[in-house]
Write a structure and sequence with these properties.
single chain, mainly alpha, two-stranded antiparallel sheet, 12 helices, about 65% helix, globular
C-alpha cells in the first residue's frame, strides 16, 4: 500500500499533501491535550509496532504481496489522532531511510494509512461496541474495525492509482503515471487486502485484549469495563519485549516473493504492460541510504534485521524525546 513516487501525478501528490495538513494540525493538538507525558513512550512503542508489522509481507493473489499496518490498534488504545501521528512518523522513517513509499507520495500514503484507516476503524468500532454491549462483542467490534479500516485505506490507494490513466495521458493516449484504471486497481487491491485484513483483525484483537486485561486504564478511548487499573510500567516492558520479538522475526517478511500491487519497479512495469509511462520514466528519483531495507555489503537477512532495529529504535527515541519536552 506504499505508493512509490511517479505512480501519482505531481498535482495528485500536492492535493493529497495539502489535504493532510489540517489533519496533522488537528492530530498534533489532540495529542498535546490528551496524551499524558508518561504515555508518550507508549506512543513510540505503537509507532515502532506499526513500522515493524509493515515489514511482514504476506503473499496475496496474483503473485503480489501485502502487509498489515496496525493503525486501528493504535487508535483503539490511544485514540485515532494519536494513531495518525504514530503512523505518519513511522511512514516518514520508512520513506526517508528505506525508500518504502515515495517522498512526493507521502501525503497520499499518510492519508490512506495514517488518516483513513485509524479513523474509519475507530469510529466503526465505537459504533459496533454500543450495539454488541459485551466483552466478546467488544473484541468482535475491534476485529471488524481493523478489517474494514485496512480495506478502506486500500480502497483509497486503489482510487488514487486508478484515476491516473483517466486524468493524465501523453499525446499518444498512453497513461503518464500509473497505467492501470479503476477497473483493475480496485479489484486488485480489494482481493489482496481482503486476505490481509484477517491478519490485521486478529493482531488487533490479540494485542487489544492483552492491554485491556493487563492495564485497562491505559486505553485512552475508555472502551473498557470493570476495574480501571493502570500498570504502565509492566505494560511498557511487555510491549517492548513484543517489539524485540518482532525485530527478530522480521526476516520472515522476505519469504513472500514479488512486489506489492502498485509498487513495481520500472523494469517490472515494462515487462507487465510493455512500456514505461513517460511521467514515471522522467520522474523524481530519491535514493534512501537503506533502500529496500538493505545495505551495501550486507546479506538480505542481515540488512532486513538491521533495518528493523534502526527503524524501531529511532521511533522509540523520537517519542521519548517528544515526551521529555511535553509539559503535563
Amino acid at each position: 500500500m506504499h505508493i512509490p513516487d511517479n505512480y501519482l501525478s505531481p498535482s495528485t501528490c500536492a492535493v493529497m499533501g495539502l489535504t493532510m495538513l489540517p489533519v496533522w494540525k488537528h492530530s498534533i493538538t489532540k495529542v498535546k491535550n490528551e496524551i499524558s507525558k508518561k504515555k508518550m513512550p507508549l506512543l513510540g512503542i505503537c509507532a515502532a509496532f506499526s513500522f515493524l508489522i509493515m515489514m511482514f509481507n504476506v503473499p496475496t493473489p496474483g503473485g503480489t504481496t501485502a502487509h498489515a499496518v496496525g493503525a486501528v490498534l493504535i487508535a483503539l488504545i490511544l485514540g485515532p489522532s494519536a494513531a495518525t501521528i504514530a503512523v505518519t512518523i513511522a511512514l516518514l522513517i520508512q520513506c526517508l531511510f528505506f525508500g518504502d513509499g515515495g517522498v512526493l507520495a507521502f501525503g497520499a500514503n499518510t492519508f490512506n494509512m495514517a488518516f483513513v484507516m485509524p479513523f474509519v476503524g475507530y469510529y466503526l468500532f465505537s459504533f459496533l461496541r454500543k450495539i454488541f454491549k459485551s466483552e466478546k462483542g467488544e473484541l468482535v467490534a475491534a476485529f471488524i474495525g481493523a478489517y474494514v479500516g485496512l480495506n478502506a485505506a486500500a480502497f483509497c490507494a486503489a482510487v488514487e492509482l486508478g484515476i491516473q490513466p483517466l486524468l493524465f495521458k501523453d499525446p499518444t493516449g498512453h497513461p503518464l503515471y500509473c497505467p492501470y484504471p479503476l477497473s483493475v486497481s480496485i479489484p486488485a487491491m480489494a482481493s489482496a487486502h481482503a486476505i490481509i485484513g484477517l491478519i490485521e483483525g486478529a493482531v488487533t484483537v490479540g494485542v487489544y485484549a492483552y492491554i485491556k486485561k493487563v492495564s485497562p486504564a491505559t486505553i485512552q478511548t475508555k472502551h473498557f469495563t470493570g476495574e480501571a487499573k493502570e500498570n504502565n510500567n509492566f505494560l511498557f516492558k511487555s510491549l517492548l519485549a513484543l517489539i524485540g520479538a518482532m525485530v527478530i522475526l522480521t526476516p520472515i517478511g522476505l519469504i513472500a516473493s514479488g512486489s506489492a500491487w502498485g509498487e513495481w519497479s520500472s523494469d517490472e512495469l515494462q515487462t507487465m504492460v510493455g512500456y514505461i509511462p513517460k511521467g514515471m520514466a522522467h520522474g523524481s528519483i530519491y535514493h534512501a541510504f537503506g533502500d529496500g531495507y538493505g545495505f551495501s555489503g550486507m546479506g538480505d537477512i542481515s540488512g532486513y534485521l538491521l533495518s528493523a532495529v534502526l527503524g524501531a529504535v529511532v521511533l522509540i527515541i523520537i517519542f521519548k524525546v517528544l515526551g521529555s519536552l511535553k509539559k503535563d
